[in-house]
Protein: 5'-nucleotidase, cytosolic IIIB
Organism: Serinus canaria
Amino acid sequence: MTLSRFGCNGRRCPTSHNILDTSRVISEDGKKKLKDLLHYYYPIEIDPNRTLEEKRPLMVEWWTKAHELLVQQKIHKSDIAQIVRESEAMLRDGFKEFFDQLHKNNVPLFIFSAGVGDILEEIIRQANVFYSNVNVVSNYMGFSDDGVLTHFKGPLIHTYNKNNTVLQGTGYFQQLSTRTSIILLGDSMGDLTMADGVPRVENILKIGFLNDKVEERRRKYLDSYDIVLESDETLEVVNGILRYILAET
């Protein structure tokens, strides 16, 4: 819901988990159980009156239960491309300029997602923008030798632990030690910590997409992000900033 759209023509667009949850490879019983989890835990996830300490264990609970249900469905690796093709997943308007500008100027694009990495990569691949500067850290599926989903690889990434703790040992941020400026894009309060492990940050511009429950969450977003974009399904502001910065260099 940061690079992908939150809504389109009055309807919610699917997250990478939703794409799987509602696909033809999930049984009707599985779909119902996954939907019940969403209806129970999503209001908790976005509740501005609950602390992060309260939310974290509940998010681990939600992700763990959802992943267990998905494993029970015996999803085949070979189905993933078709599942994405048949879905209503949409990247935000302006995504091509965004990916193209960063690639052309050798700017690393680090996607830190609490979704399903295999689905996310496939969305980017099908949009023809999976360039060499793109790195994804997410929840990846583990498959058996015959290509059936058996588990999700650790560590579990949920909305409120997107920080250096789940990147320990990956060395990714160390590769960025020459980079001193970051544009951070997020759509939740949990996204604010995504760059905490980058070694030598001098400038960080935090841009927040406020997609849902706008009125009740506005104050918190304005207190935390430098720029807040309300119900904006585009990357126009980000692209404008990139055009300006990259023209200067």
Notes: Strands lie at 7-8, 11-12, 109-116, 134-139, 141-143, 149-152, 181-186, 203-210, 227-230. The mean pLDDT is 94. Residues 117 and 154 are 12 Å apart (CA to CA). The longest helix spans residues 52-72.
